[in-house]
Amino acid sequence: MTTTASASPATTPLDADALSASLTVRDLAASRDWYRDALGFAIDREIERDGVLRAVGIRAGAVRLMLNQDDGAKGLDRAKGAGLSLMITTRQDIDAIAARVRARGTPFITEPQDTPWGARVFRVADPDGFILVVSTPLR
């Protein structure tokens, strides 16, 4: 048996450039507005089908999310976001971002705080319960 210096496709580690998430939401317009107004995401595109808003692409720097209207096929009251948190890192002032979230009336899971690992961070849930962890490195 011979070995080669190059790894086979089955053992080569994934080398990704980005990660985007697609979230199914109960009220698409409310979620779009929350991400735009509370966190400051920009609207990239809105997708309509038969004159009905079905999806909204949003972005914040390199972070991209797709918000999709729940069609109810699995039950409109099903839990969304359980066991998942999305971590967003920024160089912006966390306290200013938190003030925008607070002004929108969204309760915090954790208020902005400094961590032992050198970041300032807060946690908040979107209207469907998806957890967002927003942090910035301490200077």
Condensed summary:
It contains two helices and eight strands.
Q: For the record, give the distance between the C-alpha atoms at the N and C termini, rounded to a whole number.
A: 53 Å
Query: Which descriptor suits the 3D outline?
Result: globular
Mean pLDDT comes to 90
Strand order of the largest sheet: 1-4-3-2
- Tell me the number of helical segments per DSSP (H or I, 4 or more residues long): 2
Report on the structure:
- This protein is an alpha/beta fold and 139 residues long.
- The chain has helices at 28-39, 94-103, and strands spanning 21-25, 42-49, 52-60, 63-69, 85-89, 108-114, 119-125, 131-137.
- Strands 1-4-3-2 form a four-stranded mixed sheet, covered by helices on one side. A four-stranded mixed sheet has the order 5-8-7-6, covered by helices on one side.
- A hairpin with a 2-residue loop joins β2 and β3.
- The longest helix is centred in the N-terminal third of the chain and has 12 residues, at 28-39.
- It is globular and about 50 Å long.
- The N and C termini lie far apart (53 Å).
- The mean pLDDT is 90.
Primary descriptors:
139 residues; alpha/beta; 2 helices; 8 strands; 16% helix; globular
